[in-house]
Amino acid sequence: MTNLSSFRLALDRDTRVDQGRLWASLMAMAEVGPGIAGGNNRQALTDEDGAARTLFARWCQEAGMEIHVDQMGNIFAMRPGTDPDTAPVCVGSHLDTQPAGGRFDGILGVLAGLEVVRTLNDRGIRTKHPIVVANWTNEEGSRFAPVMMASGVFAGVHSVEWAYDRQDRTGIRFGDELERIGWKGKMPVGSLKLKAFYELHIEQGPILEAEGTQIGIVTGGQGLTWLQVNLQGRSAHAGSTPMARRRNAGLGASRVMELVQQVAMSHQPYAVGTVGRLELRPNSTNSVPGSAELAIDIRSPDATVLAAMEASIRHGVEAIAGELELTFTISRLQHAEPVAFDEPSVSTIRNVAASLGYTHRDIVSGAGHDAYWLSRVTPTAMIMCPCIDGISHNEAEDISPEWAAAGANVLLHAVGETALVDACTGHP
Ligand code: GLV
Ligand code: MN
Ligand code: MN
């Protein structure tokens, strides 16, 4: 039975997710790989990431889903549809965190997907299309660069072999670590063809909370480029080497940090620039640093601005190195153009938010998301909910149970519209 009246009957506007259950799942997941200040340290492919995956897979199996794992360790928990020949509607995000990460960045999108399925199960609602809840491996990119790695492989942006060869700072290969934690699957990456992808995520910025708006309709996201700069000088004694005779890579690094700041400031309000990682060698109080490695993150919603920023930084690094008698290399670790999401999918989210009575506004995402790469291979849109003070990539990251549930309700109804409610027994 596929008709509109059954859809209305089965999934009317009063149907809501179970807020308490969603929150309890979020809190239980936050117990896995705790940080030191109330958040999480569950970096990609650590034992803690493995434990989070096992917990998620168990919950999905308890909700009647089949678990599929691809060669990148992406987990696809599948709730069958009534028509086995149709492509799944996918929802999800990531369970890995920053080294000092929050409890919701990524996790909300995965567990809200599970809550959607649990809610449909509670009401005996079947959909024509299967529903897949995905956990994308290594979204954060802090242990293994780049960000959004495995969704990028899924979308054909990177090859599996290239991804396997990425190393963390201790030289451990991504592929070896994926195998070690037991989540290297057999399914060819990208072989699952999707009807649509929806990702619910916390805003990670201050706009929605400041306005008192419940739902962000994400129309697209900023482009981003990561650059690694290596400066080579000469390590020397901090006491006996005259200032004029130094080739100080640490001083060079500090000037590059200032350069990134100036470049971003010269493109306001359409640019941000950050040096989030800096390593000096030998990193000893009484040695002039002989080498420095910096990772630069620049972003803009405007591709032209992003390109201009990169060019300015490259020229600036060259000038700084020249002045300080350093040699240097600059390599791109990551580049993603600004993204515009699929307009019909964005409209679906907007209409659903309005019909559920939520206050909402269009918003451009400042952060990177797996949805960016997914948008290359399937119609994609994102939903955002507020977070306290816009704080994220910080253990203090926080949201309210009501905000989480509002986002999950929009996700539920967007999935219902897209996966096509086909039958409702009214019984699980
Ligand atoms: C992902 O967390 C990003 O860097 O935006
Ligand atoms: Mn995230
Ligand atoms: Mn993040």
From TrEMBL:
<comment type="similarity">
    <text>Belongs to the peptidase M20 family.</text>
</comment>
<dbReference type="Pfam" id="PF01546">
    <property type="entry name" value="Peptidase_M20"/>
</dbReference>
<feature type="binding site">
    <location>
        <position position="140"/>
    </location>
    <ligand>
        <name>Zn(2+) 2</name>
    </ligand>
</feature>
<feature type="binding site">
    <location>
        <position position="105"/>
    </location>
    <ligand>
        <name>Zn(2+) 2</name>
    </ligand>
</feature>
<dbReference type="InterPro" id="IPR010158">
    <property type="entry name" value="Amidase_Cbmase"/>
</dbReference>
<dbReference type="GO" id="GO:0046872">
    <property type="term" value="F:metal ion binding"/>
</dbReference>
<dbReference type="GO" id="GO:0016813">
    <property type="term" value="F:hydrolase activity, acting on carbon-nitrogen (but not peptide) bonds, in linear amidines"/>
</dbReference>
<keyword id="KW-0862">Zinc</keyword>
<feature type="binding site">
    <location>
        <position position="393"/>
    </location>
    <ligand>
        <name>Zn(2+) 2</name>
    </ligand>
</feature>
<protein>
    <submittedName>
        <fullName>N-carbamoyl-L-amino-acid hydrolase</fullName>
        <ecNumber>3.5.1.87</ecNumber>
    </submittedName>
</protein>
<dbReference type="InterPro" id="IPR036264">
    <property type="entry name" value="Bact_exopeptidase_dim_dom"/>
</dbReference>
<feature type="binding site">
    <location>
        <position position="201"/>
    </location>
    <ligand>
        <name>Zn(2+) 1</name>
    </ligand>
</feature>
<keyword id="KW-0378">Hydrolase</keyword>
<keyword id="KW-0479">Metal-binding</keyword>
<dbReference type="InterPro" id="IPR002933">
    <property type="entry name" value="Peptidase_M20"/>
</dbReference>
<feature type="binding site">
    <location>
        <position position="94"/>
    </location>
    <ligand>
        <name>Zn(2+) 1</name>
    </ligand>
</feature>
<feature type="binding site">
    <location>
        <position position="105"/>
    </location>
    <ligand>
        <name>Zn(2+) 1</name>
    </ligand>
</feature>
<dbReference type="GO" id="GO:0050538">
    <property type="term" value="F:N-carbamoyl-L-amino-acid hydrolase activity"/>
</dbReference>
